[in-house]
Q: What sequence folds into this?
């Protein structure tokens, strides 16, 4: 249990943890402001420019900063104070929203000013998102973490149900400057909670990673962690095609259905309402239905909703379609978010979640531009139809990359590695370091052992190895040596801190092959100075 969760072991759920509850409520308020901005920005762009590409670019510049900055933000969140980083990001968002409100009120907002301001707001969101997701395990205990992740998604969709409809009404009554000003005010709630949060100081035995080293370590983890890689592949398959509905909706509302800003907001509100219904159903559904099955059903529903929106001839029908789309969206989003959280240990959690957000927003950005360009060359209905068909085809990914179900793998540090035996402790920057582990196995079982060892190589690479191999003694069958190289002695010390309880179980499986009265021999070899 984390320090923030101490003393609340008997908590009924994540909202019983005071800091999580306060931050959850504040982010719902802030997200309402964000959705109001999205409605105002999308609607204002349809007034400033008739180009479908520029309208779709509003969605693209909202998500592009996440694609560009999610990974650097995740690396910073794993090496800096997360509370201070969140405060800085929220202040940036407050400033951008306030400046846009003033410029729009003065009539100085052009299509490119609107895109630029929305881009800066996207930067603030990109700096915040990995940190917000990474601090959740600090605010609740392990048992309630999946429910907390789902509750965060529910909060996003509660705001989606309220924000667009409210934004549309405010645009209709007071104009877009009022929406942008209220978005700025909504950030104050999050700032207030963050200023009052006394985050416990974390003691580290090792010095913090450098920025570029942290980036490399995060990349290695994402590349060599099969559970996280699975989530990323599934995210690409869903969000590239799912982005079409978001990007084309302003055009469907204004040109296809002849709605005003309030009507457009109501359509987004229908999607948010569907997501809230879906989130409430998911809590029970996850106990009975496998996560992969939920993801398949969600994809089918969202594909049908995208195809149906292309044929929508009335606002009532479009509202029903968006209700179904919201239910499907929350089903897929929660399934992927929970899987990404469970696939990453604490030392790299912000970076792992940043990779997920990078793929998510990159797919949304690229997809928005793709479907906007396609609609400009053909029409909106064609773009939506092709996106719906593509999403149906992406269901094949669920056959080969199945989302995991059941209990979470224990990724807490196990500290089961013995301290290295050295004559004199090397300097931290001394390297590279070659670690050799010598096993003695029954020659008849050597092929089986080597196959198991090769599967285990991903753990070494994931935690810092830049090279890995296995060798068998030609003169003594059954004498097998595993060797892996890390960049420095300090990086190898970090490996010791990164191994998990799940790794310990796998290591014990390997050690069961070892014969002899003594454990496998471990050697640490340094390149001569």
A:
């Amino acid at each position: 249990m984390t320090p923030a969760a101490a003393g609340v072991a008997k908590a009924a759920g994540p909202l019983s943890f005071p800091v999580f509850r306060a931050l959850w409520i504040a982010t719902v308020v802030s997200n309402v402001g964000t959705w109001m901005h999205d409605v105002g920005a999308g609607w204002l762009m349809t007034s400033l420019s008739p180009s479908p590409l520029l309208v779709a670019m509003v969605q693209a510049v909202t998500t592009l900063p996440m694609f560009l900055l999610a990974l650097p933000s995740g690396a910073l969140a794993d090496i800096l104070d997360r509370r201070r980083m969140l405060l800085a990001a929220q202040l940036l968002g407050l400033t951008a929203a306030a400046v846009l409100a003033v410029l729009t009120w003065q009539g100085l907002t052009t299509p490119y000013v609107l895109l630029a301001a929305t881009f800066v707001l996207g930067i603030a969101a990109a700096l915040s998102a990995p940190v917000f997701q990474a601090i959740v395990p600090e605010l609740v205990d392990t048992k309630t973490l999946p429910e907390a992740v789902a509750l965060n998604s529910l909060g996003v969709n509660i705001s989606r149900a309220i924000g667009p409809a409210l934004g549309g009404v405010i645009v209709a009554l007071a104009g877009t400057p009022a929406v942008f000003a209220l978005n700025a005010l909504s950030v104050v709630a999050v700032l207030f909670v963050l200023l009052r949060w006394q985050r416990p100081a974390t003691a580290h035995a090792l010095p913090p990673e450098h920025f570029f080293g942290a980036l490399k370590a995060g990349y290695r983890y994402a590349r060599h962690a099969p559970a996280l890689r699975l989530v990323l592949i599934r995210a690409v398959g869903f969000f590239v095609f799912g982005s079409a509905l978001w990007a084309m909706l302003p055009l469907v509302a204004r040109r296809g259905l002849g709605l005003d800003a309030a009507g457009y907001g109501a359509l987004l509100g229908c999607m948010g309402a569907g997501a809230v219904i879906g989130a409430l159903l998911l809590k029970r559904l996850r106990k009975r239905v496998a996560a992969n099955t939920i993801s398949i059903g969600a994809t089918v529903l969202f594909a049908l909703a995208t195809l149906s929106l292309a044929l929508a001839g009335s606002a009532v029908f479009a509202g029903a379609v968006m209700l179904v789309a919201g239910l499907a969206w929350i089903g897929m989003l929660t399934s992927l978010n929970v899987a990404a959280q469970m696939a990453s240990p604490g030392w790299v959690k912000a970076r792992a979640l940043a990779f997920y957000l990078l793929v998510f927003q990159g797919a949304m950005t690229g997809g928005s531009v793709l479907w906007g360009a396609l609609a400009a060359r053909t029409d909106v209905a064609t773009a939506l139809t092709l996106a719906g068909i593509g999403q149906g085809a992406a269901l094949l990914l669920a056959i080969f990359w199945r989302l995991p179900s059941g209990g979470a793998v224990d990724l807490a540090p196990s500290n089961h590695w013995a301290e290295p035996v050295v004559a004199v402790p090397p300097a931290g920057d001394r390297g590279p370091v070659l670690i050799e582990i010598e096993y003695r196995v029954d020659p008849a079982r050597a092929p089986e052992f080597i196959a198991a060892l090769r599967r285990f190589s991903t753990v070494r690479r994931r935690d810092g190895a830049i090279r890995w191999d296995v060798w068998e003694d030609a003169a003594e069958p059954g004498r097998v040596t595993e060797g892996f190289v890390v960049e420095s002695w300090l990086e190898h010390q970090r490996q010791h801190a990164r191994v998990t309880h799940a790794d310990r179980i796998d290591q014990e499986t390997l050690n069961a092959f070892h014969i002899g009265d003594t454990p496998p021999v471990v050697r640490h070899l340094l390149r001569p100075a």
The beta strands are 433-440, 467-472, 479-486, 521-526.
